[in-house]
Design brief:
alpha/beta; D-Maltodextrin-Binding Protein, domain 2; 2 domains; three-stranded antiparallel sheet; 11 strands
């Protein structure tokens, strides 16, 4: 499972990590081992071992370790990686207790920023600063910056907002990829009339995190309709969820998701969206029951899974995708996710590893192994075997692209990973956008 996706299940713990810094009086090391940091701001002693802590697990963790194996040997440094499903809760406790790892891979920029503001994170060393300046956009650098100080470097990334479809079905009906939101609505209506059934399928089911795919829809529309400035104000709560711009975005999404003539192909009515597991929609795409589906670049893996979608992905293959179009043709704003690498110690070996992880050399090494991408401009798109990942890399590397991190991952956990999710479920079940947005906004923590 993608680390970017898995964050949807762990994000509610982030709020516990922040409160843990203030309330916990002793350290708890869930692994039973010692961390690499000797304390906030302490350089520590280089010993040829660098500890790394993160949420990346299972197969992805194996690939992560494989990605730096040759470099470890060449530089005589042993990188010890530890994964935890309770990273967000534990990292703050470890930091306060003096048992933090040398490096941590943060799936939420806000959690990195919180620890940096409390002087637990080391400012990025000169080599990392140089790499970020040369290979990363200002948008990405901003997510690793707190109080005008760079504290880390981006690692991997995802591009959200893809709309998956069958090129053969489009060709046989003379349909074209829409270039504006209105064209997408017109295409949807045409497809419904031509097929005599709903063209879209949607699945928001995700156990305790049910509802998160709907937040991605809203975020796409806020950015495309209202623009990046309003998006940023929304994320920081300078404007509330009840702002007209946010309601307009939600209502626009509702033109598709709340219309029984448009959803839910292969699964039932509108309310079936909540009970449909998000990955199951790959099967409906693969067998042709569903013609349109909104999901991030990681969905490529679900579509090609022999036990799920069992279809090929590419511009001339069974399934392909275009980005959710902007309000006006030519828009270049996208949402996505990723991780930031921050350091708790600054000994020579830790600095060397952190610099390597921010380099195009590491990015190419990892992407060649499959399944992920990076926004590092030094990454060769051809390093990715997947056509959709190649397209996503080009988008991230385009200097004209306006990138915004997933809003729910930037908001406090009580909102972005809780009230926003449940609000989406209530909305699909029939509550008005006005009522839902009000209840989400009420969950925003007071100062």
């Amino acid at each position: 499972m993608s680390s970017i996706l898995r964050r949807r299940f762990t994000a509610p713990f982030a709020i516990l990590a922040i409160s843990g810094l203030a309330l916990t009086g002793c350290a708890v090391d869930e692994s039973g081992g010692s961390g690499g940091s000797s304390g906030p701001g302490d350089a520590g002693q280089a010993d040829g071992v660098v500890t790394v802590y993160g949420t990346i697990e299972e197969t992805e963790a194996d690939l992560l370790e494989q990605s730096w194996a040759d470099w470890e040997s060449e530089n005589d440094i042993d990188i010890k990686y530890e994964s935890s499903k309770e990273f967000e809760a534990q990292i703050g406790i470890r930091a306060q207790g003096g048992s933090a790892p040398d490096l941590a891979i943060f799936p939420q920029p806000g959690l990195l920023g919180d620890l940096a503001s409390r002087d637990y994170i080391q400012p990025a060393p000169e080599g990392v600063q140089s790499n970020v300046e040369e290979y990363w956009s200002e948008d990405w650098a901003g997510y690793a910056t707190t109080d005008d100080t760079l504290y880390g470097a981006p690692l991997m990334a995802s591009v959200k907002g893809w709309i998956w479809y069958s090129p053969a079905e489009f060709a046989s009906n003379g349909w074209e990829e829409p270039t504006t939101w209105d064209e997408l609505l017109e295409l949807t209506q045409t497809m419904a009339e031509t097929k005599g059934s709903a063209p879209w399928c949607a699945g928001f089911g995700s156990e305790a995190a049910t509802g998160w795919p709907g937040t991605d829809w809203i975020e796409d529309l806020v950015l495309r309709q209202a623009g990046p400035e309003t998006y940023d104000q929304w994320v920081s709560h300078d404007i509330p969820f009840t702002d007209p711009a946010i309601q307009e975005a939600m209502d626009s999404v509702g033109e598709i998701l709340l219309n029984p003539e448009y959803v839910n192909a292969g699964f039932g009515d509108v309310e079936s969206i909540n009970s449909t597991p998000f990955g199951d929609t790959a099967r409906a795409l693969g067998d042709g029951t569903c013609s349109l589906h909104h999901q991030a670049s990681f969905f490529d893996g679900f579509i090609q899974d022999p036990e799920n979608g069992n279809a090929t992905v590419g511009p001339d293959a069974d399934i392909w995708a275009f980005l959710t179009p902007s309000i006006e043709a030519g828009g270049n704003a996208v949402t996505g996710g990723g991780e930031i690498v921050g350091a708790f110690s600054n000994d020579a070996d830790t600095v060397k590893v952190q610099e390597y992880l921010s380099s195009p050399e590491w990015a190419n090494s990892r992407v060649k192994l499959g399944g992920v991408l990076s926004a590092n401009s030094g990454l060769d798109p051809e390093s990715a075997e997947s056509p959709i990942l190649q397209e996503a890399i080009k988008i991230l590397q385009d200097p004209n692209t306006t990138f915004r991190f997933d809003a729910s991952d930037l908001m406090p956990g009580a909102v972005g990973s809780a009230a926003f999710f449940t609000g989406i479920v209530d909305w699909i079940n029939g509550k008005s956008s006005e009522e839902v947005l009000g209840q989400i906004d009420a969950a925003w923590p007071s100062e």
